[in-house]
Amino acid sequence: MLAAVVIAAAATACGGEAPKPSAPAAAPAAPASPPKVRVYVTNEWSGDLTVINGDTQEAIGTFKLGKRPRGIQASPDGKSLFVALSGSPPAPPGTDEKSLPPPDRAADGIGEIDANTYQVKRIIHAGNDPEQLGVSADGTRLYVANEDASQTSVVDIASGNVIATVKIGDEPEGVQLRPDGKVVYVTSEEDGAVFAIDTATNTVLRKIPVGHRPRGIGFLPDGSRAYVTLENDGALALVDAQKHAFLKLIALKGEGKTPKPRPMGIAVHPDGSMIYVTTGSFGKLFFLDPKTNTTTGDIEVGPRPWGVALMPDNKTLYTANGPSNDVSIVDLASRTVVKKIKAGDRPWGIAIVGSR
Predict the structure, then answer these.
(1) CA 250, CA 271: separation in Å to the nearest integer?
(2) Has this prediction a pTM greater than 0.85?
(3) Do 157 and 76 form a contact (C-beta atoms < 8 A)?
């Protein structure tokens, strides 16, 4: 059965020497028979997509997308990829926006990519400055966070039309559907909140204050709880995902490259036994046990890990490391980085398509 797994950035393996990155691959034509498992990495600054053979752990090539590709999700059938493209210039925290060039709104859109040929099939215009997105389980809807517009756009995939816009807080980023598909959560960095949106009516059910600069969202498989990464708190917010209520903060602690962790990306094991959190400039991947809501360890993976995704066998995990232009492959049994693979300029998001 095809399954797609995502989420919207010199590492050493725990207790060992840093693995050496493998050489970058050229961009040949797509193979006639795609690999059984493929890893897709968006490269924000070079505007392209690096494709990795998940069976051999070798890069297949890098393929042009458009401006600032960030969030990436696969369709439920694994045949398409949806990538958020943005014409807004990068603006890291502290940037004087008056110094930035004007946005190129013609570059905004959701690129639909053929998962087998790695080519852009069409651009769906889905509001200003898309950053991250979610895909409904039936493959009919996209939910797009429009960062500059403070809204979520709901897109009918078949027609490519925006069928609704939902006004939410400033700088929306993370998008994740609850496993039952009835609710989609969207983070607002500036408001420090998560907005719970009813997917039947496309209306806000509740604004949930969670903490400072929320980024990514991960649901437990039963939809009972959500975990929200809080970049500026060095913590995760635990949310009751049925009542849409904040429960508590879960602090991440340890030694890293910054004074405290900066939680960014998040992935949840399909059986709900473990949660994996990347920490940006802190440089580490954390392991969180949802039964106790405590961390069980962390490892260095790269200078600024952001996107994170599990392989279909759930034995291996990939992280996108922005400044070093590579991805780390983590063996989950030993909790070590076993290899690094070169990507494009500033890898950001990761999607994986393959057979379980």
Answers:
(1) 21
(2) yes
(3) no
